[in-house]
Specification:
heterodimer, A: alpha+beta, 14-stranded mixed β-sheet, 16 strands, 22% helix, elongated, B: alpha+beta, Immunoglobulin-like, four-stranded antiparallel β-sheet
């Protein structure tokens, strides 16, 4: 009798362990890709609000803690809260991405992808911009390099930002809906960066908030020496006017978007 | 046999005119009649503004129904006050998503319609068989413990 009970107990234990271990094993999976996008402003260049034609050689941005979420109710960036999702998928490393890579018609930069991501709607994303510890952006979270031209003047610039930012965003807002991952398929989410916020945009009305808040390029051209500007934030604080430096400090946190959707920066 | 027509005529007219009303038949009114029909639907009105309160006049609106979140269910444009109104399909309960965009600015609002949003805290994805076996394990734990102590007393 004791032997029978012992065998029965072992059998029940083994079966139940196996079945519990298999729980969730039949969940629908797919591949979730994470893209970074500097938009046509970075890829093709643009004219600043004060008439400088700007083209970018490199826009290095250093990204960490990149995580996509399935949130219900959908995350509202205006809440200022951290994103909390019932399902989340992240990239494990820190990535230095050149948003200007690939030329005028290049696709957004693929930062990484997560295979075996649970199917569903990834309607929120968070990431950090942190100082790089190696590579072309070493010591900075953002390096903007290019050339600006206006009325025969030319300025080669490297603007280096060492401030770190964290972004919490809701769903991508744009021509297509992103983040809807179906079983066996691939979907993507996007971190979008609006560099017209720094320099302004000549194609947007001057009384638009975008241009009212933008620094423009004229202040940077004013502190260039011999057609060259190589400046970090400490240098900007010293050489820019207090008003222009404050405008730069205020506008940098607004770079991060999801398409046209705004994010909460912390 | 002569009928009193002074009496019959009004009675006949009353019957002719009143019968359709009693039978509930529709009547057509002529001359300067006005037909106003209505149906009761739940309309959704959104008002889109920029952060500074300025209306997003002429902004593009895309509405997604809960059963097909990838395909626009309706597209339209906000009026001068940033308003846009639509009547969702009541046969599609769930969260309706409305995206509003204009000149590089955009946002999304999510409106639950027709269902209670109750967080499910059920069995966490276990099958009936798994639950039964886990229950059996618990029961067997009690039985085994009983056997153990009964054997010690014996």
């Amino acid at each position: 009798m004791r032997k029978l009970m012992f065998v029965l107990a072992i059998t029940v234990f083994v079966f139940s362990t196996a079945l519990v271990g298999c729980a969730g094993g039949d969940r629908a999976m797919g591949t979730l890709q994470f893209h970074a996008n500097g938009e046509d402003f970075v890829r093709q260049g643009f004219v600043s609000k004060d008439g400088w034609s700007i083209n970018f050689d490199h826009v290095y941005i250093n990204l960490a803690d990149i995580t996509a979420y399935q949130t219900d109710p959908p995350y509202d960036p205006h809440s200022g809260a951290d994103v909390e999702g019932k399902v989340k998928v992240g990239l494990p490393k820190t990535y230095t991405v050149d948003l200007a890579e690939g030329g005028a018609d290049a696709a957004p930069i693929l930062v990484g992808e997560a295979k075996n991501a649970a199917a569903g709607h990834y309607n929120a994303i968070s990431w950090k911009m942190v100082k790089a510890s190696s590579g072309p952006a070493n010591g900075y979270s953002l390096v903007i390099a290019g050339t600006a031209e206006k009325a025969g003047q030319s300025v080669d610039f490297d603007i280096k930002v060492d401030t770190e930012y964290g972004y919490s965003c809701g769903e991508f807002v744009g021509d297509e809906r992103k983040g809807i991952l179906r079983e066996g398929s691939t979907a993507d989410v996007e971190m979008t960066f609006h560099f017209d916020h720094i320099f302004g945009d000549a194609d947007t009305p001057m009384d638009d908030e975008l241009n009212l808040g933008a620094v423009g390029f004229e202040p940077f051209a004013g502190i260039a020496e011999g057609g060259r500007l190589d400046m970090d934030m400490a240098g900007c604080r010293t050489k820019l006017s207090a008003k222009d430096y404050q405008a730069l400090v205020d506008i940098l946190p607004t770079l991060g978007h999801v398409g046209e959707g705004h994010c909460h920066c912390h | 046999m002569n009928m009193n027509w002074r009496f019959v005529t009004p009675l006949f007219c009353l019957l002719i005119l009143g019968l359709p009303i009693m039978l509930g038949l529709p009547m057509k009114a002529h001359a300067h009649g006005v037909v106003i029909e209505y149906t009761v639907d739940m309309a959704i009105e959104i008002v889109a503004t920029y952060d500074n309160g300025e209306p997003m006049a002429g902004a593009q609106v895309v509405v997604y129904a809960p059963d097909d979140p990838s395909t626009p269910w309706l597209t339209g444009v906000c009026d001068d006050q940033g308003r846009f109104t639509f009547v969702p399909d009541a046969s599609k309960p769930g969260t309706w998503d409305i995206q509003v965009r204009k000149a590089g600015h955009g946002g999304m609002v999510h409106i639950p319609i027709g269902e209670d949003t109750v967080a499910t805290t059920g069995a966490g994805g276990y099958t009936v068989l798994q639950i039964a076996l886990m229950a059996a394990c618990v029961i067997w734990g009690f039985v085994g413990t009983g056997f153990y102590f009964s054997r010690r007393r014996a």
